[in-house]
Amino acid sequence: MFDNLTEKLNHTFKRLKGHGKLSERNIQDALKEVRITLLEADVNFKVVKGFVEGVRQKALGQGVLKSLTPAQQFIKIVKDELISLMGDKESHLNLTGKSPHSIMVVGLQGSGKTTTIGKLAKQLVDKHYTPLLVPADVYRPAAIEQLKTLGNQLGVSVYEADPNQKPIEICKSALNLANSKGFSVLLIDTAGRWHSDKELMEELESIKKEIKPKEILLVADAMTGQEAVNVATRFNEALDIDGVILTKVDGDARGGAALSIKAVTNKPIKFVGVGEKLDALEVFYPERMASRILGMGDVLSLIERAESTIDAEDALALEKKIKKEGFTLEDFKGVFQQMKKMGPLQDILGMIPGLNSKALKSVQVDDKKLTRMEAILSSMTQRERLYPSILNGSRRKRIAVGSGNSVQEVNRLIKQFMQTRKMLKRFGKGGMKDIGRLLSNS
Hints:
434 Repressor (Amino-terminal Domain), 9% strand
């Protein structure tokens, strides 16, 4: 989402580092560039004005001008101001006190509310809550069926709503059911509406008054930029929302919504949607996001994603096999499967410190190519994966036909496997530095 912003800010910082000593003049020049960059990223102009002024006051302090590393000090000030702009620290769901806890999800039609409810339900199930999905959108065709489909995928209960009922009646009945059946969380899917639609907004206000939800979360589309901020403002004025979930941040968004919403509404961004799958919802960490914006990576999120997707026992078993030089094509296949669980490789590389957006443009990571490589491995017999030395010409031809690839591609994968196995043997002798080269060649 922040590729262009990151690239332009890094260009500004590089120019600052070219000065042996900072002066009020070159700081002002840098701030002018930062201001233009933020406006181009569709950040609210009032937010930009306050941000630049905050940086200016701190950057012109004697502690920076007399510092041995003034450019680094300036970058730290920008990072601190970005963190402050986005909310200082993460904000979690409020699920304290007596259950059931009602969470009311609101937003415009097409913002991704229903899918986001499915993602929230998955997170709650993973944390051992028992959610009940409540389809209170009786206006959109198939909205109830969509929620039922998500419930079936997750093994989560969905309230049997009568489309002829009013939304407020559905919510009241669902709350009574949750109390009697022991559900811990109600996730209420409301109808999408324009913030200017007075009648429908009043309906939301009535549901809020009757149900008294623990949280009201606005789902906003990051792709709409400043319109997402305007939507957040209107919904907050009407409902006093508790937080925002930004969807489609993995798309071609400029980042203005993420940098403006908290400053304009004083309500935190709690989650960001980073893909279409039900596990593609992440807690919004202002500090980590600021690091990524400035090209510093996001190691903590990378570790957490790995911990949540990679089986610890499998990883330990693989480590033992490597030490005994028993790494096979069967293990190689397992590595591909684990990598796919972590999401697109381009996103993962973006979390690594030092790999800014400009550097990543030269490393074209093709996830489809990885899928083809997995298909080749799946077309092998288990014996062939365990004993790759038996892969003669006729076997390779059969594997190529079975996987829909050429023999050359099969040969290339086997060659890469041999290089990987050879590299793993050299881990203790500096082999780690070759990983980047292997990835870029894959």
